[in-house]
Design goal:
By secondary structure, the chain is an alpha/beta fold. The protein contains 20 helices and 15 strands.
Length: about 475
């Protein structure tokens, strides 16, 4: 019995974070991984409960208690192999998943008041150790099938599907509009949450397996969707969602009012050493400026923390609900506050003043009755307005789907009323035969871990479709 109750006298300890003043000077990850004894000790806090709610609430249904036990016993290679069995990117999930809302937030010992097992940090430790020790093996490419799959989008859903499909023996070609694979893992998420070598080594592993990456390839410009259908036996659309939601207030198109993704891409490109003229001339650079970020999700947190590192004079986050009702990770809010970000809760912009923005006029808000999402809906509080000085305003209200039928030259491609792709729920096939879709372009803006899960699921459906197609062709012959 005692062996399962170590959480009672062994405190929860995350890897030590660097001091806020030091980490605000660079884009390195804010905490190092565990040393081996600390990882084993923290993994040993798992109670090995009968119903592992951590696994239930993980979209990938990772075998979390099992690899925690193996880690606690010092059997790290076995822990890695078990972790890797259900996820194509465990060290990435360990870094960027909102564990406080998923596995750790549903840990049984968290409910008991002793603090959750530090699952994400142990997951990161296991796989980083595996890379260092050479335990991460090349992709085991299956026997050649003589069929090819084209994947549009090199983000987490597309990369996950590519991994599984190559293992099954298919020729895989990945098309992406950017000059580097990874999607938002590469260009949307800052290095202080996910250092870029962590992504590039995953991409390199797929490239080494014979997966062909067509970078700087924009469907609709280099080729239509129909062109790609003619090249491949099946297609997967995994583009994600990139159309920013607008703020409909006066001055939203003023100089200095910018989109979150433009801002984050510019910052990440600079970290690669790219030439970024808009950054160098200042329009996408927060240095010396009073910055106001509008939004309360993880993208907003990425923006405020990036602005701090760029040397902003002040950084404020404007959000229309209160802290308890914000969609972003509470850990990210705490990190931002430690680094000097000021949160202006229950406030919404009324206007951005000046031809080149000089201030944000905002209205105080209050929370009314719950809306369709179950959260209390914000409404204007007649208590007054406030003015915030601003030389740069970053709009971070989330993303919707682009008009893919128009962009791809495929008007027959079915979409929902939200613009996401319409798929058969059983097969994940779109309205076009042999064309599948997965990730955010189907479910809307969501988490990376869900995109990885969707990539895994759609690969199995594509495999079933292509096996049936091959069988039908042989029968006809």
């Amino acid at each position: 019995m005692a062996s399962t109750l170590k959480f009672v006298d062994r405190e929860q300890r995350y890897p030590t974070k660097r001091a806020a003043e030091a980490r605000a000077e660079d884009f390195r990850e804010i905490a190092d991984r565990y040393a081996v004894p600390a990882a084993e000790a923290q993994a040993g806090r798992c109670s090995q409960c009968g119903v592992p709610y951590c696994s239930v609430h993980c979209p990938l249904h990772n075998h979390i208690p099992d690899w925690l036990r193996l880690t606690a016993e010092g059997r790290l290679r076995e822990a890695y192999e078990l972790s890797n069995a259900t996820s194509t990117m465990p060290e990435i999930c360990g870094r960027i998943c909102p564990q406080d809302r998923l596995c750790e937030g549903n840990c049984v010992i968290e409910f008991s008041g002793h603090g959750a097992v530090t699952i994400g940090s142990v997951e990161k430790f296991i796989t980083d150790t595996a890379w260092e020790e050479g335990w991460v093996e090349p992709v085991h490419v299956g026997p050649a099938r003589g069929q090819s799959v084209g994947i549009i989008g090199a983000g987490p859903a597309g990369l996950s599907a590519a991994d599984y499909l190559r293992t099954l023996g298919y020729d895989v070609h990945v098309y992406d509009r950017h000059d580097r694979a990874g999607g938002l893992l590469t260009y949307g998420i800052p290095g202080f949450k996910l250092e870029k070598h962590v992504v590039t080594r995953r991409v390199d592993r797929l490239r080494d397996a014979g997966i062909v990456f067509h970078e700087g390839f924009e469907v609709g410009r280099e080729a239509t969707l129909e062109d790609l259908r003619a090249r491949h036996d099946a297609l997967l659309i995994a583009t994600g969602v990139y159309r920013p939601r607008e703020i409909k207030v006066p001055g939203s198109d003023a100089g200095g009012v910018i989109e979150a993704l433009d801002y984050l891409i510019a910052s990440n490109r600079k970290s690669f050493g790219d030439a970024v003229p808009a950054f160098d001339e200042g329009s996408l650079n927060a240095a010396g400026k009073n910055v106001v970020v509008v939004g309360g999700g993880d993208t907003a947190m990425d923006c405020v923390r990036t602005a701090v590192r760029q040397g902003a004079a002040s950084v404020k986050c404007l959000y229309r609900r209160d802290r308890a009702n914000m969609p972003g990770s509470q850990r990210e809010v705490a990190n931002a506050e430690e680094e000097g970000v000021e949160f202006v809760w229950l406030s919404a912009p009324v206007s951005f003043d000046g031809d080149t923005v000089s201030s944000v006029r905002a209205s105080r808000m209050r929370l009314g009755a719950p809306d369709a999402s179950g959260r209390r809906a914000p409404e204007v509080d007649p208590g007054g307005e406030l003015d915030l000085p601003a030389d740069m305003v970053v709009k971070a209200l989330g993303y919707d789907a682009e008009d893919l039928p128009a962009l791809f030259g495929a008007p027959e491609l079915g979409v929902t009323r939200w613009g996401t792709l319409l798929v058969d729920n059983k097969t994940l096939m779109t309205s076009l035969d042999g064309v599948f879709a997965a990730g955010d372009i189907v479910r809307g803006a969501s988490l990376v871990v869900w995109a990885i899960r969707d990539g895994r699921d759609v690969a199995s459906h594509i495999h079933a479709h292509l096996k049936a197609k091959m069988a039908a062709e042989r029968k006809a012959a």
